Structure formats: structure tokens, C-alpha cells
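thread from #wetlab-drylab

HS: before we spend reagent money on co-crystallization trials with adenosine-5'-diphosphate, can we at least see a predicted complex? here's what I'd submit
DV: go for it
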Amino acid sequence: MGEFDLIARYFTRPVRRSPLGVGDDCALLQPAAGMQLAVSTDLLVEGRHFLSTVDAGRLGHKSLAVNLSDLAACGARPLAFTLSLSLPQVDEAWLAGFAAGLFALADAHQCELVGGDTTRGPLCINITVFGEVPAGAALLRSGARPGDDLWVSGTLGDARLALEAFRGTVSLPQPMFESARLRLEQPEPRVALGCALRGIATSAIDLSDGLLGDLGHVLARSGAGATVETAAVTPLLAATRSGLQLPLEQLQALVLAGGDDYELAFTAPADQRAAVEAAAAQAGTPVTRIGRIDAEPGLRLLDAQGRALERRFASFDHFAT
Ligand code: ADP
Ligand code: MG
């Protein structure tokens, strides 16, 4: 099968929301009047971002999910995406599985594949997503203000727990491993929550490299500091609710710095608590208040007794030695 047969068979589908999809030199997008385009791209490299043994369908899902998660963090609604693939060989079973996982998530968000590029090489997947957001309404990292509450969606740490199980540093009962593994391999981007938080949240970010590291980006862009109540965060490891016993230090490392969560961390004024809860209910995504934004720069962690926790956590960095 040649390059063009491959594109035609697996990656060409009719478009409805976009004026022109796959097949020409460019795709054409038509954001609605008064909307801004939100654009984000992510590169996934075998061995670095995913294990070579991962199921193709889950990889298709995750490749798009991590991109949709960036749109969610901006409060943008997905519109379209492009897919650039570097493949070692044409493996039709793999391609069919990958496309099925990819399009299932794309269809759930009415996000259309409109173009891409296909070449032979090491397995790499690059997706660029395009979303739309009312002009001026995008949620930014720079908007956190002293006194704001700090919130996080869903649960944290289970994806990293699965990675540690793959690495052999923890051993999990099979059902617990499977559910943690689902969080690692098939994250659900919080698009509905991001959109519902427009006009309520003052800042937002999606959590890809671990809560504390990603929160640091918000604080840097906002010129502020934060206090995090770790006792509010540690119960967010879902595996502990199904009976996993972990030393507190290990539990803290998973939820505070685990990575690959694809939840949203966001800030909102304290008088918006009811509005945040209503947005979360509307989106069907639980949210938890985990701290506050301070005028004083830096990140302060409190333990369950409200005392300063001096421990340092390293966030994920592809170039850290
Ligand atoms: P060009 O040479 O103009 O870059 P290509 O021959 O690479 O075009 O691609 C032909 C068409 O197929 C283009 O419309 C391109 O956007 C689309 N395309 C290529 N690879 C993919 C892919 N993996 N997924 C979706 N569309 C693709
Ligand atoms: Mg090309």
C-alpha cells in the first residue's frame, strides 16, 4: 500500500464543519463570527511519550486527547485537527486500530481531521488542533490573582502510578493496574469543563507534567505565588479509594508531581465558588479546591496539620539530566 492509498483508506473522511478537508494543498477552516482560533500542537515520540507495546486504538485516542486537553485549558471548543505521521512500515491492523481510537474521540468532540502529512521513519505522531473561543474569552495562564481559589478537576496521580507499575517500582492488583493504566493510556480531555469555566475562572492550565510544575507556569505568568493544602490533594489518587496503601511520601509524589494527568488546574475568585461548582456539575466533571493564590511569590505546601511541608518535588522535563 502506498502513501496515498494509506491516506485515502485510513485518514480521509468527509467534513461538515470545515469548508475543505483532506486532499488539497490546504484545508480551509471557518470559525464562527466573533470567534478567535485557538491553536495547539503536540508531538508524541515512541519510547518517550508512549511505550512501544501500547494498544494502537488507545494511542490514537491519546494522541488527540493531549491536544484537546490544551484547547480545554483555554476554554476553546474543538473544530478541526491535522495529523502528521511518521511510520516505520505500513501495518494495516495497527493503522485500523489507531484510526478507530482517534476518530472515536474526534467524533465525541465533533473535531474533524482536515489534513496532515505521512512519511516513513521512526514512529512519531504530531497533531495540531484548532478550536474556537469567543474573542477575548480564552482562559490564560496569566490571569491568577491573589486571593483566588486554586482548583483542580478529577483525580491526579493514577497515570503515573501505572507508569511506575510498568517500570516495576510498584506492584498493583490487576483490576487496580487496569484502571490506572486506562488513565495513562486513555485520558479524557476536560473540554466541557474548560468551556463552562469561561467568564468564571481567572486562569487555567492542563496538567501534563505534574500539578506543582504546571502550577509553577501559572504563577510565573501571573506574577503571583500559591499555597497548596496537600491534604486536599492526596485523596485525589483514585487507586487509594479502591484500597491501595502507600507511604504518604509516595502518595504525595504521585498526586503533586506525577504527570500525564490531563486534568485542569484553574483559579477563580473566592466569591465564584458556587459558579465553579455549577460549571463542574454542568460539565459532569468533579472539581476540588486545593489552595489559594498569594501575592507573595513562590509555592508553599501545607501538610494535614497546616504546617509548612518542606519537601521538594521534581516535575517532568524532557531535557532534565
Ligand atoms: P503535499 O505534498 O501538498 O504536502 P501530501 O501529498 O503530503 O500533500 O498530502 C496529500 C493530502 O493528504 C493533503 O491534503 C494532506 O493534508 C493529506 N494528508 C496527508 N497525510 C495525512 C494524514 N496522516 N492524515 C490526514 N490527512 C493527510
Ligand atoms: Mg505532505
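DV: The chain has two domains: 3-134, 141-302.
HS: ok that's useful, forwarding to the group
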